[in-house]
Amino acid sequence: MAETTVRRVRHTSRKSDSERTERKNAALALQRALDRRDNGGETGH
Question: Where are the residues of the annotated region Disordered (predicted)?
Answer without folding.
Answer: 1-26
